Amino acid sequence: MAVDGPADGAHRVVVVDDDPGIRLVLGRALARWGYEVFLAGTAKDALLALQGDIDVVAVVSDVAMPAMDGLDLAGEILRRHAGVPILFLTGSPVSADLLANPLVGLLGKPARVADVRVALDDLIARTAVAAAAVGGRSDGGAAPHPTGAPHSTGAPHSTGAPHLTGAPHSTGAPHLTGAPHSTRAPLAAGDGGWAAPARRLDAGPTR
């Protein structure tokens, strides 16, 4: 089950994917980076997570999902929750018109978990710059980031870095797939709760 959230002020990310394995590995990674995480198995669950006065800095979503897909979800988020960026993590096509929106990013599968961090940092930074421009601020639009979770540098990735694919696990490079995952994981998808950062989760390697 999801554990109680941390103190107010934590940066929150909603992960939306109908594959529980991908949700789990992404949730663990985001928790290690200092985010409070909500795992949603459907677009409807994601929209429920965004209700209320909460500080969500980004949504990471698949595109191909049953009922409401990621594209429709993005439309609803952009309409209902102005300023919340969406990072698509998918092998499905996304229209150029949608990607022209500075609040929308795309990372194709297969992708390493480290690539997700780079793409997420970039999207949050772009969103902050756009917000600063609209608000007439002159602070350079520094992107919000959880305390103790340094920005990724874009440096070369380790060869053993986890990947996001739909393929079976390989022995040398763990992948985010729907394959069986560790029973040690404290995160559960779509349970309507926020999971705290790594200090409250299993922060060990995702294997």
Account of the 3D structure:
By secondary structure, the protein is α/β, with parallel strands linked by helices. It has a domain at 16-154: 3-Layer(aba) Sandwich (Rossmann fold). It contains 5 helices and 8 strands. It has a 5-stranded parallel sheet with strand order 2-1-3-4-5, sandwiched between helices. Strands 6-7-8 form a 3-stranded mixed sheet. Helix 2 (43-49) packs parallel to helix 3. The longest helix has 23 residues, at 113-135. Mean pLDDT is 73; it is low at 1-8, 137-161, 166-192 and 198-207.
Task: Tell me briefly what this model is.
With 207 residues, this protein is α/β, with parallel strands linked by helices.
Summarize the topology.
Layout lengths: L11 E5 L3 H13 L3 E5 L2 H7 L6 E6 L8 H11 L5 E5 L5 H4 L4 E5 L2 E2 H23 L27 E2 L10 E2 L31
Parallel strand pairs: 1-2, 1-3, 3-4, 4-5, 7-8
Antiparallel strand pairs: 6-7
Helix pairs in contact: 2-3
Overall helicity: 25-40%
Head-to-tail CA distance between termini: 20 Å
CATH class of the domain at 16-154: Alpha Beta
Element string (H = helix, E = strand): EHEHEHEHEEHEE
Shape label: globular
- How does the major sheet shape up? 5 strands, parallel
Beta-strand segment tally: 8
What is the average per-residue confidence, as pLDDT, rounded to a whole number? Answer: 73
Question: CATH H-level name of the domain at 16-154... which superfamily?
Answer: Response regulator
**And the CATH topology of the domain at 16-154?**
Rossmann fold
Secondary-structure-based class equals: alpha/beta
